[in-house]
Design brief:
Length: 377
């Protein structure tokens, strides 16, 4: 299992395949069930606004009509119009003139038509909304059931949202777990597969297919809740890479003992980044560009880790023989061995083995070609 999420950089979510920005955006599910539900809600609001406007116009016409056909004051004309539209009738004492009776008959027909149209439209809209929500949920459940080699993000707060956005920008599958309805709505609106529930629940994690997951991020605001989530996840998936958020300084050791593979404190990381930006601004800016999922400042480069698969043409070849630098222009900064050791700035005579992770930097498209070379032949 690869260290997909760096323990030193919460925004660096590694993967085995490097993708261009266009491909990453294409991999984002922007038309998920949340978007369909939002569209249905907007259509329902639009119909309601049209019907209210139509009813206001009808009442206005009726009030003006009674005012000038019968000479009534404005309130009496308005009251008679309401009675007519409500099908009670505006002439209980036979006070209308022949012209008023004709106008009243026309107003009754229009009123009944508008009310019937309103009832039918609202009924249709509500049925469409409920059916859309039902099929949207079914579609999402089906999508989640097919997930494999995916990421699970527990918590849809600011940190969880950023994690999910970064993963989706890289074209990788992700599912979020959130029990708060307001935060869950953000997930739906962005078309991200969602499970509404408690991340510390075994049933919820099984529903997210934790057994087939590639990594899990526990990013809720409560350290205690993060400990429960990590404990539960580790019990269900002993080999899963789990990264957890820590708000308090003493939470790091507790989360590690609970089974977290890495722990990130957003406050510590923010402080370290700000200090580097003040003392070494160019270094920090370069690292941000290399580790971000977007190309920034005109630099079309990325830093990635690429796993050498069995059967790859790179297996058994030295770095010089592989011509990674000469042909692709990619810099192999380090090689992480399957046993865990890391060799920084490997020499040209270093022999590549199965399971090695090449920590490389270069053009995004060239990194994609390197991933192809490292794949099975």
């Amino acid at each position: 299992m690869s260290n997909i999420l760096s323990s030193n950089d919460p925004s660096a979510i590694s993967k085995n395949d490097a993708r261009g920005n266009g491909d990453r955006r294409a991999g984002t599910n922007s038309a998920g069930p949340g978007h369909g539900r939002t569209h249905s809600s907007r259509r329902l609001i639009g119909r309601a606004s049209s019907l209210v406007l139509l009813l206001v116009c009808l009442i206005s016409i009726g009030t003006i009509g009674f005012r000038y056909t019968e000479g009534w004051d404005w309130f009496k004309a308005f009251y008679a119009t309401l009675m007519t539209v409500a099908t009670i009738g505006a002439d209980p004492l036979n006070q209308l003139s022949p012209q008023g009776q004709m106008f009243n008959a026309i107003l009754i027909v229009l009123g009944v038509s508008v009310v019937g149209f309103a009832i039918g439209s609202f009924t249709q809209a509500m049925v469409e909304f409920e059916l859309g929500s039902f099929f949207g949920r079914r579609r999402m459940e089906k999508e989640i059931s097919k997930l494999h080699d995916h990421f699970i993000v527990c918590g849809a707060g600011r940190v969880g949202r950023r994690i999910s956005t970064e993963i989706m920008e890289r074209g990788l599958p992700v599912v979020m777990i959130e029990k708060d309805q307001s935060r869950a709505q953000w997930v739906r609106d962005h078309g991200i597969p969602l499970i509404v529930g408690d991340g510390s629940s075994e049933a919820t994690l099984r529903e997210a297919h934790i057994g087939q997951a590639r990594g899990l991020a526990s990013a809720v605001t409560s350290d205690a809740q993060n400990v429960y989530i990590v404990l539960t996840a580790r019990g269900l998936a002993p080999d899963l890479f789990i990264i957890a958020r820590a708000s308090e300084e003493d939470a790091d050791s507790k989360l590690m003992r609970a089974g977290a593979s890495a722990v990130i404190s957003p406050y510590n990381y923010a402080g370290e980044s700000m200090a580097r930006m003040m003392t070494r601004p160019h270094v920090q800016s370069f690292l941000d560009s290399a580790l971000s999922s977007f190309s920034q400042g005109g630099l079309n480069l990325q830093m990635e880790e690429v796993r050498v698969e069995p059967g790859s043409h790179l297996v058994g070849a030295s770095l010089a023989e592989s011509a990674i630098g000469a042909k692709l222009g990619v810099i192999v900064m380090a090689i992480r061995k399957p046993q865990g050791g890391v060799q920084f700035n490997p020499g040209s005579d270093h022999v590549i083995s199965v399971g090695d992770y090449l920590i490389a930097m270069g053009d995004i498209e060239k990194l994609r070609q390197l991933e192809t070379l490292a794949g099975p032949g």
